[in-house]
Amino acid sequence: MQVKALGHVVLKVRDLERSILFYRDVLGMKEVARYQGVMAFFTLGDNHHDLGLMQIGAQAPDADHGSVGLYHVAFKVGDSLDELRACKAHLEANKVSIFGMSDHGVSQSLYIHDPDGIEIELYVDADPALWRDDPGAVLTTKRLQL
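RE: above sequence
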């Protein structure tokens, strides 16, 4: 057996409507379905759905940073620094706080939190030749200036 692709990710959220506004209206994902008022599904264009949100309620505790589980979800926003700059301007216009900017060599990234504090990486890819022959190139992290 060999896994061929990542199919989708489902995130647990406190308030489905609040999260839908963030992922649909701020990040620009297309909402494709809702299920029984507790789930929503989004596509990035090529799959029937790439992201699911599942409401678990306002009293849900924050995830413990020291426990096993999701660290962050990364979404590609383009292939150029100009596209990443446009993403940064869009986030700022929507009052989304950017808490990190990194140059990973193989990609350049902005880091934000969704309404429930889930870490989201928004990135652009660099030339794939940087990592195809040297997969260890993904270990680079430098401060990014935009």
